[in-house]
């Protein structure tokens, strides 16, 4: 089914456009070592990514995806500050684009779509990653996890993007790799496209019923055929 009459495409970042887990894991482990704790394999940290920096640190301190409710707040605050400092120094050292991302984004932009990013990553880290991976200037709007009072899966960032682009919800598509993206789209009554290769905590994204689901980013071109000019 072609997604027709769309004007704006909203993309998640981590796990959708960029494999940022190597740098996130490095910063997490530097933080844990700094605190006198044992580091974790990158594969473990991958399963903790996707809900923003605070949740990542809570999971790292808990050593599990399920957060320990007894963590002292002073420990959490200190660990988060240390993590953000470490991550700022390695934000794009080993991160890389997933296959076919840049060419597909450029093709979609050439077809007339306007592009934005809605991520749960702190906003200050987004531009350095885009610059480092050659994506600067492609996106008109960037909303981070700390840009608004709510983050995905809350629909507020999606509604905010619609208002900024001056389009209706029906004219937008949310594209991402995790349930947070699909649930945010559903809460906003927006169409969505899921990608299976990212960070979704080993859950089957199909359960959340995006309008389309692809294992290759290039699949977007099969359902987004470009903006039709008025006759």
TrEMBL record:
GO biological process: carbohydrate metabolic process; DNA repair; glycolate biosynthetic process
Primary enzyme class: hydrolase
Keyword Chloroplast part of the UniProt annotation: no
A single cellular component GO annotation: cytosol
Chain sites annotated for binding Mg(2+): 12, 14, 177
Keyword entries, A-Z: Carbohydrate metabolism, Hydrolase, Magnesium, Metal-binding
A Pfam match: HAD_2
SUPFAM superfamilies: HAD-like
Gene Ontology MF terms: metal ion binding; phosphoglycolate phosphatase activity
Cofactor: Mg(2+)
Catalytic site positions: 12 (nucleophile)
Taxonomic superkingdom: Bacteria
Catalysed reactions, as listed in the record: 2-phosphoglycolate + H2O = glycolate + phosphate
EC number assigned by the record: 3.1.3.18
Pathway: Organic acid metabolism; glycolate biosynthesis; glycolate from 2-phosphoglycolate: step 1/1
Family note: Belongs to the HAD-like hydrolase superfamily. CbbY/CbbZ/Gph/YieH family.
Function, as annotated: Specifically catalyzes the dephosphorylation of 2-phosphoglycolate. Is involved in the dissimilation of the intracellular 2-phosphoglycolate formed during the DNA repair of 3'-phosphoglycolate ends, a major class of DNA lesions induced by oxidative stress.
The name this protein goes by in its record: Phosphoglycolate phosphatase
């Amino acid at each position: 089914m072609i997604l027709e009459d769309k004007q704006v495409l909203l993309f998640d970042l981590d796990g959708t456009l960029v494999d940022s887990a190597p740098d996130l894991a490095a910063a997490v482990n530097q933080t844990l070592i700094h605190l006198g704790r044992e580091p974790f394999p990158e594969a473990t940290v991958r399963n903790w990514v996707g809900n923003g920096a605070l949740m990542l640190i809570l999971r790292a301190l808990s050593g599990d995806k399920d957060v320990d409710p007894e963590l002292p707040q002073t420990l959490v605050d200190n660990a988060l500050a240390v993590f953000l400092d470490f991550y700022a120094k390695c934000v794009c050292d080993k991160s890389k684009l997933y296959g076919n991302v840049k060419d597909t984004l450029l093709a979609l932009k050439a077809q007339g779509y306007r592009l934005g990013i809605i991520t749960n990553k702190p906003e200050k880290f987004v531009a350095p990653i885009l610059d480092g991976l050659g994506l600067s200037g492609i996106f008109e709007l960037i909303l981070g996890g700390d840009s608004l009072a709510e983050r995905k899966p809350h629909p507020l960032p999606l509604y905010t993007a619609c208002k900024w682009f001056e389009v209706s919800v029906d004219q937008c598509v949310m594209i991402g790799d995790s349930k947070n993206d699909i649930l945010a789209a559903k809460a906003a009554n927006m169409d969505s496209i899921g990608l299976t290769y990212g960070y979704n905590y080993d859950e089957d994204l199909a359960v959340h019923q995006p309008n389309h689901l692809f294992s290759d980013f290039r699949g977007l071109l099969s359902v987004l055929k470009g903006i039709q000019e008025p006759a």
